Amino acid sequence: MNCSVAQQMFGAYLDGELDASSELQLRLHLSECAFCVAGVERLRMRGSMIRRGGLRYGTPAELEQRIRKSIGTKHRRWSNWQSWGAAAAAILLASGLSIQVAQHSAAENRVAQEVISSHVRAMMTGHTTDVASTDRHTVKPWFSGRIDFSPPVSNWVTRGFPLIGGRLDYLDGRAVAALVYQRRGHLIDLFIWPARSVDVAARDHSWNGFNVIRWTAGGMSFAAVSDLNETELGQFRSLVKGS
Amino acid sequence: MVNAEFERLILPHLSSAYNLARWLLRNEQDAQDVVHDSFLRAHRYFESFSGSDGRSWLLGIVRNECFSALRGSKMQQMATDDELDLQSSGAADPEHALMLKQDLQALRDCIETLPPEYREALILRELEELSYKEIAVAAGIALGTVMSRLNRARVRLENCLTGKEKDVRS
Q1: Do A184 and B40 touch (CB under 8 A)?
Q2: Is it the case that residue A68 has pLDDT exceeding 90?
Q3: SS3 A81
Q4: In this complex, is the C-beta atom of A242 within 8 Å of any C-beta atom belonging to chain B?
Q5: Using CB atoms, which residue from B8, B22, B107 is nearest to A50?
Q6: Residue to test with chain B: of A9, A13, A59, most B Cβ within 10 A
Q7: DSSP 3-state assignment of A213?
């Protein structure tokens, strides 16, 4: 393989789209060619720059309403997310299930583990929501009578984080509300419960491609878990905090 | 009357649809109108959609509407700064923040000057994270064409950006 052939493959290589034999040949070439290694690195850095954030346009708030009005959308129940569950199960089987947790307090570790387990379990079974609706006026009242507090519920479809529903869950010995959001192909579980003193110092965690972020606001404790990258999950946190 | 499947499979991709249209048409009003019309079209032809990849199907409709509009060439002038959803990248100090802002401006200008087919491939890959296969479906092109458009987009982008970086240094 010469350099000009190799260069045609840099993009597909970084995007993980090369077939096995082409990738092998490229890797062999890279092991012998510092010039091409530098080329790949330049392309990788450009990609990071583009994806760093700020280039994606936010959807004007009125557009969703305008569309719904035109097509007369009504909110209905959804079926379970079967294809998602199958994909998640495959990823987990491939990567193994051992949890390595950083040195924080035992109680906090346990909550983080439970958050991740619940998220993964929901994806594997396909049972992500008990109430499936993008309408917060449907989801929020659903919790009343089922849980001992009223969780704040918002929908950010125009910001690229649509609400897809909610469910009851159980974390660290108490019933919690779980709101389910979507970001492109990624599911986000947002767990909410009345804040306890121990929650205030809670920290973020990462495990095996899943990110957990924790915060308290307005007397509520929040934990968001997803395989979405930390930057966008942080944007999600800003949206929730701002509402 | 909309069924639950449209709500589940198509509506959540509104922001991807808008982002693509906004980058292709280069102003907000045209993007809004085209996305609105695309959703109407998608709803009308929803019966013909099969499978589970609503996003690629919807984006295919959106990009076709965009390219029709571009050929019609009744498009407005290029957009202003304000609507860019400039999310903070967590820059700690003002000087760093200014550099990031300049980087973003340079990136934005360079992407906007790409030919629309190259721009489309870049936006779908980098911002919407579609696979090559999904891009092929959405754009109605062969896989090999996806790769060559992406390569060309990236080469042109690199040339444009290094040109600007030289200007800044001199």
Answers
A1: no
A2: no
A3: coil
A4: no
A5: B107
A6: A59
A7: strand
pLDDT tens, residue by residue, A120-178 = 888 888 888 999 888 888 899 999 989 999 999 999 988 899 999 999 999 988 899 99
Q: In angstroms, how far is the first alpha carbon of chain A from the final one?
A: 55
The pLDDT assigned to A61 comes to 83
d(CA B78, CA B70): 13
Contact A169, A130 (CB under 8 A): no
Cα distances (Å, whole numbers) of residue A36 to A97, B18, B116 = 37, 37, 29
Q: Report the DSSP pairing between strands A163-171 and A205-207.
A: unpaired
B10-52 pLDDT per residue, tens: 999 999 999 999 999 999 999 999 999 999 999 999 989 988 8
Q: Which of B85, B103, B155 to mutate to test the interface with A (most CBs of A within 10 A)?
A: B85
pTM for the full model? 0.64
Report the chain B residue with the minimal C-alpha distance to residue A46: B158
Contact assignment for A162 to B12 by CB distance below 8 Å: yes
Tell whether the model's pLDDT for residue A64 goes beyond 70.
yes
CB within 8 Å: B2 and A74: yes
The Cα–Cα gap between B156 and A99 comes to: 44
Name the residue with tokens 């064409």.
Answer: B145
CA atoms of A109 and A122, how far apart (whole Å): 20
Amino acid letter, A231: T
Q: How many other CB atoms are found less than 10 A from the CB of residue B167?
A: 9
Nearest CA to A176 out of A224, A210, A132, A208 is that of A224
CB within 8 Å: B14 and A59 = yes
Q: Interface pTM (ipTM) of the complex?
A: 0.85
The string of DSSP letters for A82-133 reads: HHHHHHHHHHHHHH-------SS-HHHHHHHHHHHHHHHHHHHHS---SB--
Q: Which residue of chain A comes nearest to B43, CA vs CA? A: A71
Token look-up 């850095």 returns A45
Answer whether A184's CB lies under 8 Å from A197's CB: no
Pairing of strands A205-207, A210-217: antiparallel
